[in-house]
Amino acid sequence: MHVLHVVGARPNFMKLAPVLLAARDRPDVQQVTVHTGQHYDYDMSGQFFAELEIPPPDQNLEVGSGSHARQTAAVIERLEPVLEHQRPDWVLVYGDVNSTLAGALVAAKLGLRVAHVEAGLRSRDRTMPEEINRLLTDRLADLLFTPSRDADANLLADGIPAERIRFVGNVMVDTLLRLRPRARALAMHRRLGLAERRYAFVTLHRPSNVDRRETLGELLAGLEELAATIPVVFPIHPRTRARIQEMGLNRLAPSVRLLSPLGYLEALSLVECSALVLTDSGGLQEETTVLGVPCLTARPNTERPVTITEGTNRLIHSTREGIREGVAAALAMGHRADAEARRPPLWDGRAGYRIVAALAEEAGGLPKRAAVS
Ligand code: UD1
Questions:
Q1: 3-class DSSP state for residue 115?
Q2: In angstroms, rounded to a whole number, what is the distance separating the alpha carbons of residues 209 and 197?
Q3: Which of 39, 116, 205, 237 is catalytic?
Q4: Does the CB atom of residue 245 touch ligand 1 within 6 A?
Q5: What pTM was computed for the model?
Q6: Is the shortest distance between the CB of 221 and ligand 1 below 6 Å?
Q7: Which atom of ligand 1 is nearest to the CA of 97?
Q8: All domains of the chain, ordered by start, with CATH?
């Protein structure tokens, strides 16, 4: 069986690793990784391959940054000849970034089988570019690997036939459980002079939070207020750094400790030992649920509802008041002692193996998907 993985942006790499490693254990599987180049800085891309203990990509399409149309189009154009040449049995796409949709679209049009890892998530918010990517990728995929039962229900409600849906669990959790001992050993908080469970860990990069001056200003003012209570560390995404500069907001949060983007192990180490996480990331909502760390998500909705119903996540308004109220609740709650017992079903570190087994089982069998009206 010949599998071709398409990845491009930071959150893809943690999802790729468990599948790649599970497939490497099987002599019947040949695999190739194509990096679209959506993310290209070393600290947004290159460092993860070494840390995740996976080989560097076989090919990089170097599409770089641009508007959604330009970036997606560049992946489509550059990926087509690669797929035509390789003709794999499966094209695997991950998550919900622009590279995910572009990969699925090219493969589907070439008549290649597409499998979507992390299928079925829905925020019901079409202002999020990721929601559009999720909807369309799921429409195109032949096999849909879901992380939770709500995702199965979303796909069935969208008319996806049940035999194409496989509930396999959460691949991000495979990576987290595998690398947690190494992350713990790093003790990043000590390197930064922070006391365990006495600091907040922050990440913000969604366009809805950082592209409008008013919202970004409120968030930074809220973080500055929080920093008067506990130290705040904020590894800053290049998009957010650029917006802060452009909008002249540099002086709004002088007490907040801004860091360059972190590696996977450094971030995991800091998250696990923090008092609380404040974020708009998708992956961190899941990671904090597994670790039992209180999480505040600065968004009006989430495509990962089990992190609220089963986990430690809570949605907050992207305002000073929203942060104030959320932090009070998070500090009152503290770390969840029963996080392991409450882990959502199949968030057990074995999702990658289930995916590879299903691909091998279906490689010859499952007919190419007919168009869904
Ligand atoms: C993308 C994903 C988002 C994911 C995020 C994780 C889409 C639509 N969005 O958003 O779902 O949560 O990745 O990081 O696919 N930049 C750099 N260096 C890099 C990459 C980006 O400086 O290596 C800067 C550029 O100014 C670029 C901006 O960040 O224009 C945004 O990058 P882009 O890939 O378009 O989207 P993200 O905001 O990273």
A1: strand
A2: 26
A3: 205
A4: no
A5: 0.96
A6: no
A7: 15
A8: 2-170+347-362 (3.40.50.2000), 179-333 (3.40.50.2000)
